[in-house]
Design brief:
mainly beta, 3-stranded antiparallel beta sheet
Length: 99
Amino acid sequence: MRRRRLSEVMSIEYHGDRQVLICEHCEERVDAPPDSNPLDALKAYEGPVTDAGPTMWPRPADFIDAPVVFRQHYCPSCYTAMLTMVVPKDHRLPADGLH
């Protein structure tokens, strides 16, 4: 088993071909199926870009043709935000996850 710190709030453990995300806030362990993106195992919220806060440019359409959303992956136990993005709506996480 190998554990790697990804951020202040998230670590990952590798158990062979299995990956387990760990919330550094509450120690919740989120097991991802083999050969999957471990972030897909987290709860997620998607909403308008304005949900990112008042300092976000409110009109992404001025710069990009695709619809843009605020997306946040969070711990299913304590709801700590683990990954927050403002991305085109059809943006998917890389297939290799967090390697």
